[in-house]
Amino acid sequence: MDLVILTFRQGELAVLLVPAEGGGNRTRRELPWRPLESGESLERAAAGLARETLGAPAAWMEQVRAYDGRLRHPGDVSVSLAFVALTPTPESRAAAAAGEWVPLDQLPPLPPRQRAMVDDAVAALRTRVDLAPIAFLLLPRTFTLSQLQEVYELLLGRSLHKASFRRALQAARLVQPLAEWRSEGRGRPAQLYRYAPAKRRTSGRSARFEF
Amino acid sequence: MDLVILTFRQGELAVLLVPAEGGGNRTRRELPWRPLESGESLERAAAGLARETLGAPAAWMEQVRAYDGRLRHPGDVSVSLAFVALTPTPESRAAAAAGEWVPLDQLPPLPPRQRAMVDDAVAALRTRVDLAPIAFLLLPRTFTLSQLQEVYELLLGRSLHKASFRRALQAARLVQPLAEWRSEGRGRPAQLYRYAPAKRRTSGRSARFEF
DNA sequence: TCAATAGTGTCTGTTAGACATTATGGA
DNA sequence: TCCATAATGTCTAACAGACACTATTGA
After folding, report:
1. Cβ of A200 < 7 Å from strand C?
2. CA nearest neighbour of B61 among B132, B109, B111
3. A100-103 and A142-144 as β-strands: parallel, antiparallel, unpaired?
4. With contacts defined as CB-CB under 8 Å, which chain A residues touch B36?
5. How much is the pTM?
6. Is residue B55 within 8 Å of B142, Cβ to Cβ?
7. How do residues A44-59 score in pLDDT, each as one tens digit?
8. pLDDT grade, residue A195 (50/70/90)?
9. Which residue's C-alpha is at the least distance from the C1' of D15?
10. Cα–Cα dist A96/A5, whole Å
């Protein structure tokens, strides 16, 4: 069982890597993983591994997929199961309990199976981003709309139109403005928001043929 | 490893069930499954099991997810991996090599873990139906647009507007009309089509908040 | 004053869905 | 003839994206 723990940090998606076990080269890093004990609940095992590595429970977890022996893995296991976990932006002072946040576009060489897991985890998020409020789980409790849009753009892999993004967000009634503003350098300070979903929309999306 | 093999038959989605092994009650049926041998490729094992059960290779396969011991399974395995497979509408004469097509809404009681697999397999299809041309894999080589719309409605779980469906289909340039018509009972005969994707569209779908 | 970012109002082209109408077979 | 289904044209409301503009801070 391997874990892809993701967060939003410094304008990028970052994954949590731990020092490779087995000694050897001391600079090598890898995804957190451990053998699955028989009879163990998958979700419980993944949640436990996340808590150990992160120092706190993950905000969200989901299975990604299973992998077989065709890609090399640091353990000599033939089948691995990958989970993806999300956690809010870590405070700069308190890093993870064990490990280091590495931006997705600065990944060191990983064992091939783990490299595939990272890619598949992000792809899995991408397919769920407009069906579940996962973007909010990557941000701190209060955030600016520009930060939120940045997360969506990272997850979707493309830039979004600002006015349209805010219109859709307002229509979805997902966030609540706070009486606080934050200055991020040069320009006008941004109002802070918090995630506060109101009521469900009756989706009503039609058949699309996007392939 | 368990297999959820689906097809479109008589206006419904149907799943392929085989007689339960282990003797016992001779009317019991279950999903096809077999233990995974260590070192075996997951995809290859699933494809082999599909070919044995179906008598022919499946048109498409994908992992669904892994399950643990919290739900009972006919084998005494603690962890199962479910795959979903699609196959075109079977000819009425030539049934599956081993097993029987059962409409999704007439499922007999299944082992709880397999019941969850069926639900998850359909849910997984639902999320992919507008991202991959899986609907065509459930139909025979030639089909009417009403049949195609019926498949989409079953996969999406809701009814679609006929004119809009055909407009979107035409814009996607996925099907080609044939010089054949088929009469389905009372009304005007329907033109037959075949799957013939032309060129890619540059998706361009924006951020949606459908939850 | 300038640069940079936040936030909003208006316009327009696209499109999903409603509605109506024609086409064509079987009963 | 009537009915059921196929297939298509037109209209409208909704909306994504473009554009422009105002607001508010730091340099």
Report:
1. no
2. B132
3. unpaired
4. 79
5. 0.91
6. no
7. 999 999 999 999 999 9
8. very high
9. A164
10. 11
